[in-house]
Amino acid sequence: MTDQHTTNALRLLQAADDFRAGLAGEFAAVHGISVNEFMMMLHLERSAANRLSRVDLAKRMHVSASTITRMAAPMEKLGLVDREVDGRDARLVYVVATDAGRKKLTETLATFSKRAGYLFNDRWEDEEIVQFAAMLRRLIGGTGDILA
């Protein structure tokens, strides 16, 4: 038997996995990108300078810098992201969303928002959604609200 904290954490993971799985199919079919590519572009768009070093992007996405390099390469070929070398230190390279990448992100965000609506609107009252939002803010309190 598991305790309530463990059960809640497992349910949170299950809900996230279910939501991600639904997104993955629609993102691939409609937009031609993966959920991880969407997340990369979202992090870029929500960063202070609309660009991030591969190391900072890796930290935000909880992956290795080499994973970011492997993810960014095909996105560069598609014209969704580009590389920008730091003017003062040529060793520092930033990942930057292109105009095409920002357009793709806008389109994909519309799909994301539609799916989020499906997730909450048919099961939750407005007051419950507000309470849940407050609980989620507390849950991520230590990491910062970098995507909202």
Main attributes of the structure:
mainly alpha; Arc Repressor Mutant, subunit A; 6 helices
What does this structure look like?
- This protein has 148 residues and is mainly α.
- It has a single domain (25-139), classed as Arc Repressor Mutant, subunit A.
- It contains six helices and three strands, in the order ααβααββαα.
- The chain has a three-stranded antiparallel beta sheet.
Q: Give the CATH architecture.
A: Orthogonal Bundle
Order of strands across the main sheet: 1-3-2
The multimeric state of the shown protein is single chain
What is the CATH topology? Arc Repressor Mutant, subunit A
- How far the N terminus sits from the C terminus, by CA atoms, comes to 36 Å
What is the average per-residue confidence, as pLDDT, rounded to a whole number? 91
Provide a compact summary of the structure:
The protein is mostly helical and 148 residues long. The protein is built from six helices and three strands. It has a single domain, classed as Winged helix-like DNA-binding domain superfamily/Winged helix DNA-binding domain (Arc Repressor Mutant, subunit A), CATH 1.10.10.
